Sequence to fold (124 residues):
Amino acid sequence: MPNLRLAPLLGALFLGAGLLGAGLLGAEAARADDDHDRAREALREGRVLPLETIVAKAGADFPGDILDVELDEEDDGIVYEIKTITADGRILKLKYDAATGELLKVKGRGNHGNHGHGRHSDRR
Fold:
């Protein structure tokens, strides 16, 4: 026979964990909104090129499908990081200078050099 005195305690623990999780998700959503606001501000101020411009450049440089895009502030400026799967099945992480559109780095599995683009290339 189950211990019925534990049922209310377990229910309260699950409810508390659910509320805690919802609070953490809310904080994550607030951070995402802040990131979007900073990205929009940088675009309005002309500090970054529009995402569409960079995605078109990435597609021209490495035909395939875009899997993920991030706009990151780094020590030497703002960069777009694009994860793509090329038409020949390679998964690449491309790093573009967000202000100029210059390809800075190509990194990924199955990568055979940087195809004459940018300053850096890593083989994996």
Remarks:
- The longest helix spans residues 6-44.
